[in-house]
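Researcher: Structure prediction, please.
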Amino acid sequence: MFHAVNALLIKDGHKVQTLQGTHIVFSMHYIKNGIFPAEYGKLYSQLQTMREESDYNCIYDVDPEELKSKLYPAKNLIDHIDKIVTEWLKQ
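Model: Predicted structure follows.
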């Protein structure tokens, strides 16, 4: 999902250098402007937090049910971005 969001940012000429920057620009330009629903912003934030916790906290344990509940929405976001970027590449 993070790579899909970065592809979208690149497509629109946004330059970011950090994961935090990606999150901020995605929220500012796509969530707040209504291009994507607020649920996607919340999902991105939650998954980013989970990723950071698992990378930097050796005792972090992911709840399988919580993670399962995020898989379908994450796939939807990726698919939505894929359509946008694919259409742009065809031009």
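Model: The first helix runs from residue 2 to 11.
Researcher: Thanks, that helps.
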